UniProtKB/TrEMBL annotation:
Matching PANTHER family: DEHYDROGENASE/REDUCTASE SDR FAMILY MEMBER 7B (PTHR44196), DEHYDROGENASE_REDUCTASE SDR FAMILY MEMBER 7B (PTHR44196:SF1)
SUPFAM superfamilies documented for this protein: NAD(P)-binding Rossmann-fold domains
Domain of life (superkingdom): Bacteria
Pfam families, A to Z: adh_short
Keyword Oxidoreductase attached: yes
Gene3D superfamilies associated with the record: NAD(P)-binding Rossmann-like Domain
Similarity comment: family membership: Belongs to the short-chain dehydrogenases/reductases (SDR) family.
Cross-referenced PROSITE patterns: ADH_SHORT (PS00061)
The name this protein goes by in its record: Short-subunit dehydrogenase
GO molecular function, one term: oxidoreductase activity
InterPro entries on file: NAD(P)-bd_dom_sf, Sc_DH/Rdtase_CS, SDR_fam
Signal peptide positions on this chain: none
Organism per entry: Aureibacter tunicatorum
């Protein structure tokens, strides 16, 4: 039986990813991580009809000691065949007004924590020659800037470049990595996003409500991985075109953005 470790499993994309995995692989051993054990237990309750073996592994990606302990546990459980990484934290604040601790937290949750985790995690499958598939849910904001997302964009951009560089280092090894860059997804992500003082934004933005279904994002992410892609923007045609336009004409994009948005 394959083992799939879903990080950021307690909300949003967590359950849809597990259900898509079930469609492809049937029964698996699921390891579910997030910070909140109670929320993980609710997820377990919803998934236990399909998955008879579920291990809950709560930890905080900001805490290196907790990451170390989680990895010890994962190794005791026999390692994993797939990692699905959905942990992320959003931002709703202007850079110059932002408390520095907010900037640091976003960088840590969205980038430094996962880099630390991978530094420790990869050693074992690499030493065993074990085949591991990995999906990282990044964001379209890693490739398309908008205002009031400086730290979020920076952290997701750092994650993008880090993973792309790592993929090249791991060439020829049995590790397959795919990162996806979704536009808005209909989850509670904006409610948990931090304002300039680090409080929860506590509001579901209209872009979020009009966003893609999480099931679609999970399915497209897995299809991208299994078809051999290493990167994929998941969005409507409109955002794909805007992202393409930005990559080709960054100066013109910024001029037009300022002209249109003021
Ligand atoms: N929703 C969107 O519009 C959108 C668009 C593009 C990309 N994304 C990306 O998609 C991913 C999943 O987001 P989502 O929409 O599913 O939102 P979500 O429901 O808020 O999921 C985020 C997950 O990250 C976990 N998390 C946050 N901080 C953590 C920490 N310090 N340690 C451990 N876990 C932590 C959350 O757990 P807690 O419940 O404990 O906070 C939650 O399980 C994120 O990486 C996000 O950047 C989202």
């Amino acid at each position: 039986m394959k083992t799939v470790w879903v990080l950021g499993a307690n909300s949003g994309l967590g359950i849809p990813f597990c259900e898509e995995i079930f469609k492809r692989w049937g029964e698996c051993h699921l390891i579910l991580s997030g910070r909140d054990l109670l929320k993980l237990e609710e997820v377990e309750e919803k998934l236990k009809k399909k998955f008879s073996r579920i291990t809950l592994l709560p930890f905080d990606i900001e805490d290196f000691d907790q990451i170390d302990s989680a990895l010890v546990k994962v190794n005791e459980l026999g390692g994993v065949d797939m990692m699905i990484y959905c942990i992320g934290l959003g931002q709703r604040s202007n850079f110059l007004e932002m408390d520095w601790k907010v900037f640091n937290k976003l960088m840590h949750v969205n980038f430094t924590g996962v880099a630390y985790l991978l530094r420790k995690f990869l050693n074992i499958p690499l030493s065993q020659g074990r085949y591991v598939e990995m999906i990282f849910v990044n964001s379209i904001q890693a490739v398309l800037p908008i205002p009031n997302r400086t730290a979020y964009s920076a952290s997701k951009g750092a994650l993008r470049n880090f993973l792309n560089s790592l993929m090249l280092e791991l060439k020829g090894k049995n590790i397959r990595i795919c990162q996806v860059f979704p536009a808005y997804i209909d989850t509670d992500f904006s409610r948990k996003a931090m304002d300039r003082q680090g409080n929860k934004h506590d509001h579901k933005d209209s872009n979020q409500s009009k966003g893609m279904r999480p099931e679609l994002v999970a399915r497209k992410s897995l299809e991208a991985l299994w078809s051999g892609k290493t990167e994929l923007i998941i969005s409507s045609f409109k955002y794909k075109i805007i992202a393409k336009f930005y990559s080709l004409f960054p100066n013109l994009f910024k001029k037009l953005f300022i002209l249109i948005r003021g």
